[in-house]
Structure formats: structure tokens, C-alpha cells
Amino acid sequence: MSSTYLHLTDEELLARIARLSGDVTLVRAQNRETGEFCIGLCERAAGKFMPLSTHTDEASAMRAGAEFAARLDRLAAEQPELQLRHIH
Predict the structure, then answer these.
(1) What pLDDT does residue 64 have?
(2) Which of 18, 56, 57, 61 gives 37 a disulfide partner, CB atoms 3.0 to 4.6 angstroms apart?
């Protein structure tokens, strides 16, 4: 089992979110070619995806997704203008 994270400060994470406009969702996706799982921010309307972490197993990806969701919930509570959806 292997995981790779972007170690972003809250400010860096917020800056990434700001680069996306519209409806931003925190998602878990699987690469069909490699089988790796990825947690990232997705703006579906524009077809943009910003990876935050990659994982070789689904359990690690689920944990990472929960950690990112909790972090984003905390940031949203501090900054009411921040609106995100949770993992799909």
C-alpha cells in the first residue's frame, strides 16, 4: 500500500480552490490504466480536476478522502463563502 499526498497549507489549498470556479466537488476517482485511486477537487462543468493525493488501495483513499473532507469542512466554517460538495 502506497500513498502520495500534496502537503498543502490551508492557504495553498484555498488558493487551489480559488483557481476553480463554479461548482467544486471533492471526489475519489480510480485510474483505469494503473488502478490507483485519487482524491481531488473537480469542477465538472469546466472539466477540471486537481489531484490532492494518490493511493494504491481503496481503503487508503477512503481515509484520505475523509481527512480532506474534514479539513474542508473546517475551512468552510471559517470562511462562509467557501462552498464545496463532498466525495462521490
Answers:
(1) 92
(2) 61
Q: What grid cell was written down for 22?
A: 463554479
Task: Kindly report each contact of residues 42-47 with a partner whose C-beta sits within 8 Å and lies 24 or more positions away, as own/partner.
Answer: 46/20, 46/21, 46/22
- DSSP category for residue 32: T
Spatial distance between the Cα atoms of 60 and 25, rounded to a whole number of angstroms: 19
Eight-class DSSP state of 44: G
What percentage of the chain has pLDDT greater than the value 70? 93
| pLDDT, tens only, 19-72 | 887 778 889 999 999 999 999 999 877 888 889 999 999 999 999 999 999 998
> Distance between CA atoms of 78 and 62, rounded to whole angstroms?
25
Half-sphere exposure of 20 (CA within 13 A, CB side): 24
Q: Cα(20)–Cα(62) distance, rounded to whole angstroms?
A: 23
